[in-house]
Amino acid sequence: MTDKIIVGVTDASGSRRAVDWAVERARARSQSIELLSVVGGAVGMVGEGIVIDAALTDTERLLTAEAERLTAGGVTVTTRVELGDPVAVLSAASEDAVLLVIGSDYRGPGQGPARGSHGIRLTAASHCPVVVVPDFDLDADEERHGVVVGVDGSAVSEAAIAFAAAEADRLGEPLTAVIVWTPISAPRNALMASPQAYREGMEENARQALALSLAGLRGTYPDLRIEEAVAEGFPSVIINELAGSARLTVVGSRGHGAVRRFLLGSISHEVLQRLASVTAVVR
User: Fold this and answer.
1) pTM
2) Spelled out in words, what is the top-level CATH class assigned to the domain 139-283?
3) SUPFAM superfamilies of this UniProt entry (predicted)?
């Protein structure tokens, strides 16, 4: 693996936001950037070659313009155009990357339907962490601060915590680690309310799992402010509520925690469908 960030580039405004986020991160960590665009949709139709050639030429111009825009940033930027399936090409490229960054056309709550099909497929196929950048100006919201990370006690969750802590330290922002427990669902004619002892036990179990997951983190980042949150509810809902005021959200992919009924797995996909902030999915 190299110390290279790959950015999937299109002509959408969300893509430019993704490029800018990646460059800021690369500059802080002395990493390089590869701008990668994929021309897809070829089916072998007669006369298709002319269309493909034109698309490749226009895409190369797009990447050249983006690279020139970034020349003053002090970051090494290379470009590449590929022909094929975007998910397959970006997934293969991620094998040689420290991070894959893509943009989304989702513009926040109330701004149209949920998005995320490509982001979800890339998250599942990528060999490195994936950062998805929504198409709205996070910097314009002065109330946004901090990094939120979902915790469930799994190995994937531990990787998410490490990624989130490093990013919070880089940004000089507090880290909020949240673990969510969900009561057992039951038919309407079952118990109308969970016994208090059960609820207290679930919350305490979650609190202990969270403390265990964060053990040693303060020693690694002595200046990092770490906030612990234990919540009852549905994980993606709770995470996105916290993410609505955060600069970055981090979740694990396909986690199966030592503490059952907590979070992650498909939750990362649900978080991606309604991006509340820049969101990183760590494998």
Assistant:
1) 0.87
2) alpha beta
3) Adenine nucleotide alpha hydrolases-like
Q: How far apart are the C-alpha atoms of 256 and 157, rounded to whole Å?
A: 9
Q: Are 251 and 215 in contact (CB under 8 A)?
A: no
Domains 1-136 and 139-283 equal at CATH topology level? yes
Asked whether 177 and 161 are in contact (CB, 8 A), the reply is yes
| Longest CA span, the chain | 71
Identify the CATH number of the domain defined by range 1-136. Answer: 3.40.50.620
- What is the residue extent of each domain of the chain? 1-136, 139-283
